[in-house]
Amino acid sequence: MPFSEIEKSTKNILLTIQDYSIYIWNTFRTLFSPPIYWNDIYLQADIIGVGSATIVILVGFFTGGVLAIQSSATLSAFGASAITGRFVSLSMIRELGPVLAGVMVSGRNASSMASELGSMVVTEQIDAMRALGVDPLRKLVLPRILASVVMLFFLTIVADSFGTLGGAGVTIFMNHQNSTQYFSQAYEFLVFSDILQGLVKPLFFGFIIASIGCFYGLRTTGGTQGVGRSTIQAVVSSAVLIIVADFLISQVMVALFIK
Amino acid sequence: MMSSIAQNGLMADPVRNNCADSAPVLVFHDVCHRFYGPPVLVDINFSLNPCETKIVLGPAGVGKSVLLKLANGLIIPRRGYVELFGENLSRMREEDRYPLRKRTGMVFQEGALFDSLSIRDNVAYQLRVDGRPEEEIEARVRDALRFVELEHTIDLFPGSLSGGMRRRVAIARAIINQPELLLYDSPTGGLDPITSTNIISLIVKQRDVYHTPSLLVTHRLQDALALVTHHYDANADGMVALPKGEIDPNTGFLILNEGKVIFNGGFEHLLACRDPFVRDFIA
Predict the structure, then answer these.
(1) Which residues contact A36 (CB under 8 A, 6 or more apart)?
(2) DSSP tag of A141
(3) What are phi and psi of A84, to 5 degrees?
(4) Going by C-beta distance under 8 Å and a sequence separation of 6 or more, which residues neighbour residue A114?
(5) Which residues contact B191 (CB under 8 A, 6 or more apart)?
(6) Is the CB of residue A114 less than 8 Å from the CB of residue A216?
(7) ipTM
(8) Where are the domains positioned within chain A?
(9) Please, which pLDDT band fits residue B20 given cuts at 50, 70 and 90?
(10) What percent of chain B is predicted at pLDDT more than 70?
């Protein structure tokens, strides 16, 4: 690759980071001055939270089931199939619940935010909103970020719960183990740091999903093709950033709580 | 119709602009702008006075729409500055520009209606954001839609309207808050002659009833001529031609070519202009 190409790509990346930082700062500032559009926040909470509940329940339930199938096969080789419940609940609550809920909501909502805002940009609706004296960051972006952060927190709890239930279904009905044993293992070995780790992550993931979705939507150029491009960029970037953030948060949490 | 609007005093007991005010509403000072290539606009200087309508003419792609977006700070120029209602837009923070924009109304090229909202919600958008009472909003929305003769579309969505109807709804949305400046971006672009005449008739009505200063971008000379040679007749409830030899004294022209202002003046000066491009353009 010629040097000029590397230089151009680097500049583009740095400019994108700069634009994203300015956009986040400007959005953050709208939080501390009126008006706050509560109705838009409730509407987005419904779209993001209630709208994503089914997919999160299904993915959580079947992932818990798969975890139970795979782990019990391995654990039984060591005569430890009794701790399947512990394995499933720890995996779901610490790691898989937040990440799966995040990736599912990202696929569903980052794409819809990018395409909705992108379409508004190319049809001059964002300019029309600004011309009417309404700040799009305040009216469109802030409600999506707040709703996404709050609702992903609860969706993660839903994913954790249904994952544990999915594991229970497999363990009890397919592997014919004792349900009390499964649930007591799933519950008794959970500690505060596991719960904290599992519930801190969705706050970051929710922020990433909405901020990235809206960011790429608002940067859309190039008509309908540009809307498609923004949607792809939003989904890919938010999914990658969720995994990267998960890695970093896990590192910090392990360093803090697991000596 | 106008009298009925004025009687209920909601939308149109209009803030009739005081034409005696001497301070210009909008001033461009040496404005230059470029995006990622050659300059779009170079050294643009002009002002818009109270009650004045300025028609911005020029070939497609010359920067007319950019000029309009510079006027209310949707774009900030790279060099020079724009003064709107006496305030320098370049020196303000974005959040401080919003109150100024609320005092203006803008009609976009394709209407730019919010397609997920009904016509009622589109027209009411600014009032709703300002937290006005629902009864007042409903009455003013109906008045604004009656002004553009589209009251029957109030419950429809933009997708079910024709291009011309969407422009008329955009005009209703722009005028609902009694703006002190109106910006029209090619309001008749791509429309059939009859619909174009209807739109121009509404603009003439707005100009002659409310005396709102306006900047109107177009590349259709026939629209510009209609604006200069017609006025709104309340008795006829429509646009009628001025007597032969008379023109509207408050309507002027700004002609752009290659990003520069090549003519700024009244209709009589335009006819007398010797610039070859201007002569070709109005020929």
Answers:
(1) A138, A142
(2) I
(3) -55, -40
(4) A213, A214, A216, A217, A220, A227, A230, A231, A233, A234, A235
(5) B163, B164, B167, B199
(6) yes
(7) 0.89
(8) 36-257
(9) low
(10) 93
A128 touching chain B per CB within 8 A? yes
Give the largest CA-CA distance in chain A.
69
Type of residue at A251: Q
Mark out chain B residues that contact chain A at CB-CB < 8 A: 69, 72, 74, 94-95, 98-99, 101-102, 104-106, 108-110, 112-115, 125-126, 129, 131, 173, 183
Contacts of B72 in chain A (CB under 8 A): 131
Length, in residues, of chain B: 283
Q: Is B69 within 8 Å of A127 when comparing Cβ atoms?
A: yes
Cα gap B161→B159, rounded to integer Å: 6
- Mean pLDDT in runs of 10 for chain A (259 residues)? 86 95 96 92 96 96 95 87 90 95 96 96 96 95 98 97 96 92 91 92 97 97 94 96 96 85
Residues 6 or more apart whose CB falls under 8 angstroms from that of A8 comprise none
Residue B69 with chain A: CB contacts under 8 Å: 127
Provide the token pair at A137.
Answer: 């960051």
Judge: domain B2-282, CATH 3.40.50.300.
yes
Contacts with B102 from chain A: Cβ below 8 Å = 132-133
pTM of the full predicted structure? 0.89
Strand B104-107 to strand B181-185: parallel, antiparallel, or no bridges (unpaired)? parallel
In this prediction, residue B3 carries a pLDDT of 36
Using the beta-carbon criterion (under 8 Å), do B104 and A131 form an inter-chain contact? yes
